[in-house]
Amino acid sequence: MASNTTVKMPGTTKMTPDLVFSEEMAFAIIIIFHRAIFPSMGVLGIAGNVTSMVILTRRGLRKCSNILLLSLSVSNVTFLIGVNNFTQHIYSNNDPEGFQFSKSINYVCYICHLICNLAYALGVTMGPLIPILITGERIIAIFCPLKANFILTPRRTVITLLCFFLVTGLYCFYHEILCVQLKTYVINGVTTTLIVDSDMWRNHVNSGLYQLLEHILNYLTGIIALGMITVGCVIIGLKIIYITKRRQQLTSRVNASTKRGITKTTKTLLKICFLYIVCYGSAFGLAYIVENKLQQWSVIRVVVCVHNLIVCINCLGDFLIYVASNATFWTSITVFRRMKTSFWK
């Protein structure tokens, strides 16, 4: 709901002498992130994860692990789209901040801004939750190999994922769409369209509902997800060691290695979970520092960029891990090279 109001910008506050970054340095770092690093990683990550999605779809979705990997690729793509929110640059680079075009163009920019924010929120939220399902699926497959096919069915996996996407999607829609609104002001004589907090957001903040939902999601996608995946990986690792030693005793092969007691699927999924623990553990630490330790706004913005960079590395790493373990992909590359060589001959 748009409204026209005339306001005056407040005077600039005086900077404290003990700044970690000057405003100019922080702005330069943020520009490098948003105009060079994030777009580059976004192109590579989106291309890689879309490639993974195509390979997984062609291989068929009869295995639960393939369905989970496909959903993880979808989550990665949504995050990489959201982190490259070009309308945010348009919005924040104006002086004063806001969209300063015609009414129709401002509204189009606002819609694009909401879509990118929604994609970012979905990617950040689903990114930690899907590895929990991957870890649980591997625990059942390793500890109950005879019953795993009856417990883990593609239909149940799809239903579980749809429930996860539905719940997180509703929260992200509430957080990114319903809690903001577009308003038009005249600031220092310039007509500017701003994205401001909605009346519903203010009511929910006053009632405590907004904070409650935010805390629940932060715990679920933060310390709880990290703890569950870490414990799950430790349990799987101990079980693999036990199985390997047991086989060694039964076959009397002293040179039996751990690799013979673990399937390629388990190795791939464990690597993805380990990468998640490293990347999201670091990102969680940065988020904690931003929330509890830092006061300077310019430093907070730089740390948020580093946080997003770590998540981008995780998205790109998921693709690299899957491709490195996929023989079909490398066979296709070899065939393509041979066809290209024979064509030019």
TrEMBL record:
Q: Which UniProt keywords apply?
A: Membrane, Transmembrane, Transmembrane helix
- Gene Ontology CC terms, in alphabetical order: membrane
Q: Could you name the domain of life of the organism this protein comes from?
A: Eukaryota
G-protein coupled receptors family 1 profile domain: which residues? Answer: 48-322
- Where found, per UniProt? Membrane
Its main localization is: membrane
Xref: Gene3D superfamilies: Rhodopsin 7-helix transmembrane proteins
Signal peptide: which range, if any? Answer: none
Q: Which residues form a coiled coil?
A: none
Spell out where the chain crosses the membrane. 25-47, 67-87, 107-136, 157-177, 216-243, 269-290
Any one GO molecular function term: G protein-coupled receptor activity
UniProt keyword annotation of Membrane present? yes
In Pfam terms, one family for this protein is 7tm_1
Can the keyword Transferase be found in this entry's annotation? no
This chain belongs to the protein called G-protein coupled receptors family 1 profile domain-containing protein
